[in-house]
Design goal:
- This protein is an alpha+beta fold and 764 residues long.
- It has a domain of 152 residues.
- Helix content is 38%, strand content 15%.
- It is built from 21 helices and 22 strands.
- Strands 10-11-12-13-14 form a 5-stranded antiparallel sheet. It has a 3-stranded antiparallel sheet with strand order 9-6-15.
- Strand 21 and strand 22 form a beta hairpin.
- Helix 16 runs parallel beside helix 17 and helix 16 packs across helix 18.
Length: 764
């Protein structure tokens, strides 16, 4: 839809009529010789999408003809008819015949029973539900990471989700179902300038005395128009490399609606014919006589060409028959305003291939078997009785169930089985039903009819998950389709939304309310990304299983586990470990090369850094010509790790998940000991002096718990072997056996007190 009053609402650069493709943009209008000296351009050398007038209309007709001829020659057009019939339970040769809705009779004398079942439709609909899964949820990506941009992205999330829910989401199921039936479907987006809500908009006006002021007027906000497209309404290239350069959408519109929007073409629109369209749905599917051709319905063609080097501004042409109603640049800066879901296609072709087509032959075989079986039962299902001739037994007596006489030695009446159903028929039907499951990728559990032999709920959930994963191609196609639709809505709003518009969004406690927004609220948003939903989260059994698993996990691991299951992203789970390993690798490289000094952070985990640095040290020492300077740098760096850890605040150690360092008692090199010693003294967990010999460090006063000299960070004296400088955890029962209070024992065998439990003899 386009604005009625073009004069009162001047169009910007995006709405100007398309320029003459034969005009030279560098021509100087003031030069009278420019037109004379300009060489005449051969129309055959002009790109067909840039032609105008009758030449362009002829090109469009040729493109339509080539597309449908290719579909017919490829066999796709007849397949559309067969798939349409299978999906609706019709006879392909006569789409007026409802074959599955009632039992029919065929044959020269209508002596044969037709008993058909429509299994294709439920299979396609179930596949569609599995492919779409949960309703789409979008998140916007902004240019910057500052607080203002992040806040705008949160608002944009709400706006985009609300717009998609209002305009596009109602057509998601139909588009996905069209992909399942015909191999391709989608949605076409246009902007209706005269639609939307009535908004009160301030407009600047000038009073008679020249004073500027604002006057509020009631204007339409405008809104997107979203319609479905199918393979026969979407004309495009049959072979491409990359993205589509152009597409043509065929739609029906009311003649009088077009006249109201384009009054300058009123006479031409009134004279436009509606009696024949060789590419109309009724004509292609041989249903002309079933659809009353309204004289008010006209076929409107919307031609789009993307912006590229050949057509820098792109192109949008709206035409009816040979009437060009609108000609201007493309409404999108990138791509076309058409979102398509296509889960499969022919290789080296743009024609779609629906997986459900492989089910049609199996369905036809089942229909034949069911009809033959029903015919057999109808013909021979009633019991036949054999009566010996000459007896007094009458048929009426047997039918009434009364007593009758039988001559002596005569044969009793007996039932006769004239024709039985073949014994292999049930096996054949079972095989065909199994093939339906195999080809479609579904199973009994996914269809809500679990196998009675499978009694485990987890097994049924697994079978359901397998069926969902089989639809990964359609899930990916549905994901791209939804993202493209949301992006188109964003482009149209930011392009044409001059007037504020109303959006239903969810507020506090998910209570919906209507808010007013403008296109400025969406500025700065580059593209849309969709939230992924795990196949496990698309089933009730899977959600319950996830809840049970998360409940048994530590609270600090639940968020990372949930993100990994839902999105498949493991970065949050291993973020700390990966960052630590990358840092250690970087430190080793710099220590070997000596390019930059390396400083030890107090919070570095020595239990991870020390072994990897020591491994690099051994690697250097094992080489034929050891780099002694690099070896010395690594040794000093390892020593720094030990000293930083021994001087670490025990509270900080708890924050980063490290065991507290052992206490270092006062000594000449460290008169106050270390922070762990001060912490334990302040909390009354240690008491030094000759009256408490059990709490003195090994080696007497002035020594460290590691047995080394005071203040040396556990360094050995000459001739002694260096003890470990870091504490090692021991089982709590072993610690108690050695006299420990808190279940931690130093590598030297010294029990480490628990800060919350003062040792025996400590002052309270």
């Amino acid at each position: 839809m386009l604005p009625q009053e073009v004069e009162e609402q001047p169009l910007d650069a995006f709405s100007e009529p398309f320029a003459d493709p034969l005009a030279d943009p560098l021509a100087v209008e003031d030069d009278p010789l420019a037109a004379v000296d300009e060489p005449e351009i051969d129309p055959a050398t002009v790109y067909w999408a840039r032609k105008t007038g009758p030449d362009f209309i002829s090109e469009i007709c040729a493109k339509e003809h080539n597309y449908f001829e290719s579909a017919r020659n490829r066999g796709v057009l007849p397949m559309w008819v067969v798939a349409y019939a299978a999906h609706h339970g019709l006879t392909p040769d006569d789409l007026r015949d409802f074959a599955t809705q009632s039992i029919g009779f065929t044959g020269n004398e209508l002596e044969l029973i037709r008993f058909h079942l429509n299994l294709i439709r439920p299979y396609i609909r179930h596949q569609t539900s599995l492919a779409l899964g949960e309703p789409a949820a979008f998140r916007a990506l902004v240019n910057n990471s500052d607080h203002r941009s992040i806040a705008k992205s949160l608002l944009t999330d709400k706006i985009i989700n609300a717009l998609y829910k209002r305009y596009s989401a109602p057509l998601d199921m139909e588009a996905a179902e069209g992909d399942g039936v015909f191999g391709l479907a989608g949605t076409h987006y246009r902007w209706d300038f005269l639609g939307g809500d009535d908004m009160k908009v301030p407009r600047p006006v000038t009073l008679e005395d020249g004073t500027p002021t604002e006057h509020y007027t009631i204007e339409k906000s405008g809104e997107p128009i979203v319609s479905l497209v199918y393979p026969w309404t979407l004309v495009q290239e049959t072979r491409i490399s990359g993205e589509h350069q152009w597409r043509l959408v065929r739609e029906l519109d009311n003649r009088w609606n077009l006249i109201a929007n384009f009054p300058q073409h009123k006479e031409q629109l009134l004279a436009a014919r509606t009696d024949f369209d060789q590419y109309d749905f009724g004509t292609l599917f041989r249903l002309e006589e079933m659809y009353y051709t309204s004289k008010d319905q006209l076929t409107v063609k919307h031609f789009y060409h993307r912006r590229c080097a050949a057509v820098p501004e792109g192109r949008y042409v709206m035409l009816v028959n040979d009437i060009i109603l609108w000609d201007g640049p493309s409404p999108r800066k990138r791509g076309l305003p058409i979102a398509v879901i296509q889960s499969g296609k022919f290789i080296e072709s743009t024609f779609g291939y629906a997986d459900a087509w492989d089910l049609i032959a199996i369905q036809q075989a089942l229909n034949q078997v069911n009809s033959d079986e029903m015919q057999n039962y109808a013909t021979f299902g009633r019991q036949s009785i054999a009566i010996e001739k000459g007896t007094e037994v009458t048929i009426d007596a047997i039918a009434q169930g009364t007593a009758f006489y039988v001559p002596p030695n005569a044969q009793m009446p007996r039932a006769v089985q004239l024709a039985a159903v073949p014994a292999t028929l049930p096996d054949l039907k079972s095989y065909l039903h199994k093939m339906l499951d195999t080809v479609s990728g579904q199973n009994a559990a996914s269809r809500g009819d679990p196998d009675p032999n499978v009694r485990s709920g987890e097994m049924n959930a697994l079978l359901d998950s397998i069926a969902i994963r089989y639809q990964s191609f359609r899930q990916d196609a549905a994901r791209k389709f939804r993202i493209e639709g949301a992006q188109i809505l964003l482009d149209l709003i930011t392009r044409y939304g001059e007037t504020p518009f109303l959006v239903d969004i969810a507020g506090i406690e998910q209570r919906s309310y209507v808010a007013e927004f403008t296109k400025e609220d969406l500025s700065g948003i580059q593209r849309i990304e969709i939230e992924q939903v795990s196949p496990l989260m698309q089933s009730t059994a899977g959600r319950l299983q996830l809840i049970t698993a998360l409940r048994e996990m530590p609270p600090e691991d639940r968020a990372a586990a949930y993100e990994m299951v839902v999105t498949g992203n493991t970065t949050r789970w291993l973020k700390t470990e990966n960052s630590c390993e990358q840092l250690i690798r970087k430190e080793n490289e710099l220590l070997v090369t000596g390019e930059a000094p390396i400083y030890v952070n107090e919070a570095d985990d020595p239990f991870k850094h020390y072994p990897m640095h020591f491994s690099m040290l051994e690697q250097l020492m094992a080489s034929e010509k050891p780099d002694m300077q690099a070896i010395q740098r690594i040794r000093l760096h390892m020593k720094d790790h030990m000293q930083q850890y021994l001087q670490m605040n025990p509270v900080s150690a708890g924050f980063v998940g490290l065991p507290p360092p052992p206490p270092i008692y006062p000594n000449p090199m460290a008169p106050r000991g270390n922070m762990m010693f001060e912490f334990m003294m302040a909390t009354g967990q240690l008491a030094t002096g000759p009256n408490n010999p059990s709490l003195m460090p090994p080696g007497g006063p002035g020594a460290t718990p590691g047995g080394g000299p005071a203040g040396g960070g556990g360094q050995p004296v000459a001739g002694q072997q260096a003890p470990p400088a870091v504490p090692q955890a021991m089982p709590s029962d072993q610690a108690q056996a050695q006299g420990g209070q808190g279940g931690q024992v130093h590598a030297t065998g010294t029990p480490l007190p628990e800060p919350s439990t003062p040792p025996a003899g400590a002052p309270v």
